[in-house]
Amino acid sequence: MKPIKIACVVGTRPEAIKMAPVILALSRDAAFEAVVLASGQHADMLTQALSDFGLSADINLNVMKDTQTLEHITSAVMEGVGSFLGEREQDMLLVHGDTATTLGAALAAFYRHTPIGHVEAGLRSHNLASPFPEEANRVLTDKITSLFFAPTEQAAQNLRTETRENKNIFVTGNTVIDALFWILAQTSGISRPDFLSALPPSAPTLLFTAHRRESWGEPLKNICKAISRVLDAHPELYVLTPLHKNPIVRDTIKAELGGNDRVIFSEPLSYRDFVAAMNRSLFLLSDSGGVQEEASALKKPVLILREISERPEAISHGTGVLVGTDTSRIEKESLALLENKKYFDSFAKKTSPFGDGQASERICAHIKAYFADKNL
Ligand code: UD1
Ligand code: UDP
Q1: What is the pTM of this model?
Q2: From the CA of 177, how far away is ligand 2's center (Å)?
Q3: Where in the sequence is the domain holding 309, given as residue range(s)?
Q4: Is residue 186 situated within a structural domain?
Q5: Which one of 146, 250, 279, 364 has the lowest number of neighbouring Cβ atoms within 10 Å?
């Protein structure tokens, strides 16, 4: 039998991390011929994340520009993926999540009559303004998707309501848990990474990341002000903050927190170092989707720096607290975690709603069954 040809599209750091275990699983199975199609929406951050899994792009469209616009990314990706599909016909295009790459690639596949598999399908905030533009990217992508890989039952339910079909909607778990377990297995026994050397060995530490478009400007400044206040209240405390490459984000965070010598900045960390940083921290403050999911599996409390969440499971399972971008709220929740041991300890008892580390294997099995049905 001919192998099933699958192009796996990745554009940004989280797509690379969450698609990596799927690419590895497809590559282990002779039923598939997988190709890694990078848009290059992120340049260095994408290459870094792929290489953490021993992967690299087979094709890279290299679309990234400095402080790029959404319309540039979407149109350049659509054009590039369309040309690729014109030259190398594929049985399926696998996209992940909700980025401009996801939407641009999915549109190209739709125009070329190539079936789309959507990994991490069905997340919904039900608000097109937040997260922006990701909510629109997901809704539009799911409109033209053939196979839906929902990370949770709630995500599948969102899809059933919208598409009025059950057949090709599968609950798989989130592949980020596969990625996390994979990296933990690779790094077990490895001693303290170098980047932590700026930190006194036993200092209590928090980990902070932020980058969302809807937080640019005042909201991000308000988050930083909260972190300053928490550091003032706790002179023993340190904050690690690996900066996103986006100059708009890094300039704001540096301007707000740069004067504090208990804030340790770094360039984007390799995935293995970032996981070590999460493990080293008491709790996390982040607006990242992936970090919320990983935190729940690592049993680290996470303060979610967003007003609305498309991952309600973190909140309903109590593994994360939605604190928004209000300075006082972030300060109050941070102090509660630092000063109320019973409250802090309660997070360790919560279970992760995001999967068991087997999502990628399930995705491969569903793709195989789909093509077996079609007698390909
Ligand atoms: C993008 C995604 C967002 C995702 C995030 C993950 C969209 C609309 N946004 O947002 O959903 O959560 O990635 O991080 O798809 N840059 C570099 N080097 C890099 C990466 C970025 O210099 O390796 C700089 C460039 O100046 C680039 C800018 O960051 O123009 C912004 O990148 P972009 O992908 O447009 O937006 P993100 O905020 O990263
Ligand atoms: N991450 C990383 N290095 C860092 C910061 C984050 O490897 O310096 C990982 C993190 O573990 C998670 C993902 O990158 O898996 C999150 O990416 P990001 O915050 O850029 O995007 P989002 O999850 O918000 O889409």
Answers
A1: 0.97
A2: 13
A3: 191-349
A4: no
A5: 279
